[in-house]
TrEMBL record:
Keyword Heme recorded: no
Protein name: ABC transporter ATP-binding protein
Keyword Lipid biosynthesis: no
Domain ABC transporter: 8-264
PROSITE patterns: ABC_TRANSPORTER_2
GO molecular function: ATP binding
Pfam families xref list: ABC_tran, oligo_HPY
Family statement drawn from the similarity comment of this UniProt entry: Belongs to the ABC transporter superfamily.
UniProt-listed InterPro entries: AAA+_ATPase, ABC_Ni/Peptide_Import, ABC_transporter-like_ATP-bd, Oligopep_ABC_C, P-loop_NTPase
Length: 339
């Protein structure tokens, strides 16, 4: 079996503020990333997807803290590193960032500099991390721009980001993230801002690059259609909790947490197009993290909530091989028949 490249264990992320109580934005998350495989992190806005991803590169805001848990990079190797415990700006962290683990974002301009050509920026990554000479770097940059589907790569290398269309900018950012052949690529909603056709092309590209490079991928999206298309595994987050995780096949075939079930039933079914389709959006809104109940975070919106839900946090329960959910319904004792 392939060894994992990154194991997040029992990780919590807390934000502090001078005037308010601390906010636990992510609680006790367990995730495993494997080479050649894609794990999708899915959930509504504010549930902690980006914060979880940024923690892996320690790119959290200054008021963030990882008080418990670990983020083990290359956990089985001799150089196993707990990223959660590395010092900001330390040498090992800088060696990992952009080199062994890199990240792409919804908005390419958050990682591309507007005042340098895309070629210069990609060259720079290779010169900095891999010690290539400028000429060698440029050859690799051109090959990479070509590989991510930028036509006329040699000429386009001299373009500034603002001279490219949205789709090409996204491809340039992907090329930059891949410059040092990372072992893990984190993609935070990389296709959300694109039109449907470009979105499909970028997903195809990422799939192709993953099979060329064999990297692991953590893919963040709020779109279950994208999950089905790109991921092998899925983790569903709600208000900082991973409420369900497992292979895409298992979770889609047998969603076991009421939140996952609600997300699934809010997707319009193509097959029912001819009928009057009634979407069933999830009732209510996600509470703010500071108002999260002690027990299951989904209690206030759950149609099946019963006595322990608001007060006792459900355990992570195995539903089938490698498929888990946190829901009291899974451990509920059947009511004994009255004699
Ligand atoms: N610097 C901060 N201080 C306090 N709380 C923060 C800070 N940064 C993020 N949060 C909180 O962490 C929670 C998770 O945010 P996150 O950005 O990870 O959500 P998300 O799932 O990525 O949502 P979206 O789909 O909108 O991108 C939110 O409730 C947010 O308000
Ligand atoms: Mg986000």
């Amino acid at each position: 079996m392939t060894q994992p490249i990154l194991v997040i264990k029992d990780m919590s992320i807390v934000f502090s503020s001078p005037d308010e109580a601390d906010i636990e934005a992510v609680r006790q998350v367990d995730l495993t990333l494997t080479p050649g495989k894609t794990l999708a992190l899915v959930g509504e806005s504010g549930c902690g997807k980006s914060v979880t991803a940024r923690a892996v590169l320690r790119l959290l805001d200054r008021n963030a803290n990882i008080p418990r848990g670990s983020i083990l990079f290359q956990p089985e190797g001799e150089a196993a590193t707990d990223i959660a415990r590395l010092k900001q700006d330390s040498l090992p962290l800088r060696a990992i960032r952009g080199n062994q683990i890199s990240m792409i974002f919804q908005e390419p301009m958050s990682s591309l500099s507007p005042v340098h050509t895309i070629g210069d920026q990609i060259d720079e990554m290779m010169i900095l991390h891999e010690g290539l000479r400028p000429k060698q770097a440029r050859e690799r940059t051109v090959a990479l721009l070509d590989q991510v589907g930028i036509p006329g790569a040699r000429q386009r290398a001299d373009a500034y980001p603002f001279e490219l269309s949205g789709g090409l900018r996204q491809r340039a950012m992907i090329a930059m993230a891949l410059a040092c052949t990372p072992q893990l690529l984190i993609a935070d909603e990389p296709t959300t801002a694109l039109d449907v056709t470009t979105q499909a092309q970028i997903l195809d590209l990422l799939r192709q690059l993953q099979s060329d490079f064999g990297m692991a991928m953590l893919f963040i999206t709020h779109d279950l259609g994208v999950v089905a298309e790109i991921a092998d595994e899925v983790a569903v987050m709600y208000l900082g909790d991973v409420v369900e995780q497992g292979s895409v096949y298992d979770v889609f075939a047998r969603p076991s947490h009421p939140y996952t079930q609600a997300l699934m039933s809010s997707i319009p079914k193509m097959a029912r197009k001819a009928e009057r389709v009634r979407l069933s959006p999830i009732k209510g809104t996600v509470p703010a993290p500071k108002d999260r109940p002690v027990g299951c975070a989904f209690t206030s919106r759950c149609p099946y909530a019963f006595e322990p839900c608001a007060t006792i946090r459900p355990e992570r329960t195995e539903v089938g091989g490698g498929h888990h959910a946190r829901c009291h319904l899974l451990t509920r004792q059947p009511v004994e028949a009255v004699a």
